[in-house]
């Protein structure tokens, strides 16, 4: 079959590779320039490749190639207000930090090695007629043209043009929410010796309640930092007008970073602020002629670092569904939707909840006790007990199953904590007698 | 101040009248033709004017004029499967049935009596620049022009063009959901004697579980019926392909209507099917330069018949807010948003819940007992106890308050029913001893 894929981001490039391997003819159109030629300005955080993503790349024989571009992170290092640090392990495989630019190029190069896959950059999709199907494009030189493949795939992100045209006049559910927080990127360069200036095998996190920062290690000795702040309020993007304001904020909240980012006040003000959006929609397809994958049908907040991993899972599931119904693309895309939708809904919910978890500094004693029990039970029960983050990161258990299992574990934990509390009160009363 | 209102539906026409009375200069642009000249094809059910809407019209001195166009409905007449009927009163003022076309003309005529209010029909809003603010229009002759008022009001319905332009590049939450049900309109003409062929002082309802029908009396002896069916499934729009299919469905579910609608099979198939959408969004305004009202910011399902009543409340609240901050439109529209948003959210939720209530035929004994207690308590406690429908229909209590009060009452009812159940079981056990 002949596929037109709109968007050469993670979702689109990966899908092109999978479909190409299956022998389909694939052309990918991307509005941005070719990342192999020009450094693309990205609107997305550094990537964390976890078990799901790695398994997917493994199936395509890319694991070895990938590992040359990653920095393994074996756990999370939480930086306290007072300069103290606290480590918690990611378990098993950990998470692999990789720069979006590197992974993008790797996928595109792997796909273009196939004779039946082609990428066209600097070309914008302007309309889709879902019933034919037909897609209209305009390239950077202003030249307009039309393509008539068998299937059009919208891999064009949270504000997908394909989705807009596919859902026109349909009874389409659509939900979009933004956080009151945004983020800016900062860069910690390598030290004079070319090496990392903080631990290079962990994910660094500075949780500060209303604000937070985190940093991923890069291969070249540098770190990519993401500062998450509210848009409005006393400590917000809105309130930071001068480089003195910025430096004062860093001195107060992130003093250990102040010296690591040269000229942080000015640099911070020059950076664009990115928004954080989550979307949920249905339908995902139209009669086997148009189908959406990745952020185009389920953009999530980045706080579980699963966006790309989920997009890769989408790609595999869509390819498997097409292979299961080779003569019936409508049945194939419906199978794809049915098998993915519950899990991407669950991922969206868990990603939202994990934001509070990440930036939270003060925890009630009950929650601390719960967390402690979670770790103890994991060690004691091994495969029969796994904290949520481990299920998301270290397994390929479908997201909704992980969510349900975490809920059951949570109920048990709460009962354990309540019992422990009652035993303590009982002990106290006996002493008082 | 100078206002441009986009949309001359219920929300826009009413607002033009209120703002005009306050001395503002108002121009209303509407893409449809002038309803005073041509019969507009509507995509909305017949209207039920309840206390909220009536109070709003009263404030504008229109109550007397309105009452010449309405048919009072004193309650709901439920038609059973077997031809039996069951009446339940709406209490106090009842609900006034009125045809959208009549009320639209009445509002437009009242507004154009003011020298500072003007309507321009057959003119479509194509773009808004929210920061100036500027609105671009194209009229039916293809002539394009631009207006630069102080404030642009989007009263252009659920798929508002003003909203789309106002929220572009903003962190705007937006939620849209369609029901799996749609509806078609049917007409029961007056009898040979020019009189109604069913009771003319009630709202007629045929609840049938997955489907339902209802009918509003018109002044001319006819009824306007709305048939609500699922889009897909055994008894659905999809399944009704021939006039025989339609007649078989009516014979099975609505036998008493079969003879009242001439040639129902053919007529039904010729009617368009309307979708049912609910939307929720924020923000509602941009810096006091652009603001949304009515369906443009909170379309609700029609099952509490409050869409128009809520749009009138919006109009009054916006006008009151502008009067409260005559020199600060930004503060005015923010006050408007703060005072309306919780209530329109509550209305959306209650309207959704009432759909199941309306079409439901089989009720558990516990629910029946609850309903019965609800009525008894209303009579016994008078002003201190009021069923939800009465609070929505017969009062101007803000929607979120009505919702909260109904929740409290529900908890009490459930406790009463549980206690009654326990007493019964106790009595039974004593007998068995």
TrEMBL record, chains A, B:
InterPro entries, sorted: FAD-bd, FAD/NAD-bd_sf
Signal peptide annotation: none
GO MF term (any one): FAD binding
SUPFAM superfamilies named in the record: FAD/NAD(P)-binding domain
GO biological process: kynurenine metabolic process
Membrane spanning stretches: 412-429
Recorded superkingdom: Bacteria
EC identifiers of the protein: 1.14.13.9
Residue stretches making up the FAD-binding domain: 4-347
Record key words, sorted: FAD, Flavoprotein, Membrane, Monooxygenase, NADP, Oxidoreductase, Transmembrane, Transmembrane helix
Coiled coil: none
Cofactor: FAD
Name of the protein in question: Kynurenine 3-monooxygenase
